[in-house]
Amino acid sequence: MPPPSLVDLLRHIAREEPLTATVRAFRGLTREHLGQLLAEAADTLAQGLPVSAPSEPVLESAAVPSPTVESAAPIAPGSGLNRVRVYSDGAARGNPGPAGAGAVLMDTQGAVIARLGKFLGHQTNNHAEYMGLLLGLQHARTLGAREVEVYADSELLIRQLDGRYQVKSATLKPLFQEAQKLLKTFSKVKLAHVPRAQNAEADEMSNRAIDERL
């Protein structure tokens, strides 16, 4: 079997590799944008053209930071998934203190699509909970999901989103409004409060975000 070409290697890396360290090293760079850059470089090499410097990535919303994304399944952005499960969580050590947001996306069969984490600096636990949700919803939209199921162990978060609790905190209101805006982009939404034990993977990502400064 002949060795793979550079073009084949770049295309494989763009599809399959999480590229966590590279995304972490360049501020504002997302996994999706990096994959796109690698795919474009492969296409350019295949055509025998010189590879140009990458353009600056554009973040879609100032309220949603660029997370570290570890893809667990070869699903490309805009692939048109029908339904995605978003497990989200947030952690703050000290409340307020060093905080991290985490989310894990799964398909309807329970297979992990992506794990996301983002270090938030010095924040409250409730702020981190909302940021975990925003990371998950933004990534679900990037993948082209039409329906979303949200699972979180924060009763406050879920009950504010379903209208049973008011949002009185001035610092949480912008995050709540951003979450509402993202939820409205899906044709069908399910919100569910779950025990912490059922949200262990998202909890792990939020704590990893703090430990590893993702």
TrEMBL record:
SUPFAM superfamilies: Ribonuclease H-like (SSF53098)
InterPro entries xrefs: RNaseH-like_sf, RNaseH_domain, RNaseH_sf
Any one Pfam family match given in the protein's UniProt record, by short name: RVT_3
CDD domains to which the protein is assigned, alphabetical: RNase_HI_like (cd09279)
Gene3D superfamilies for this protein: Ribonuclease H-like superfamily/Ribonuclease H (3.30.420.10)
RNase H type-1 domain sequence ranges: 80-211
PANTHER family on file: POLYNUCLEOTIDYL TRANSFERASE, RIBONUCLEASE H-LIKE SUPERFAMILY PROTEIN, RIBONUCLEASE HI
Protein name in UniProt: Reverse transcriptase-like protein
Organism from which the protein derives: Corallococcus praedator
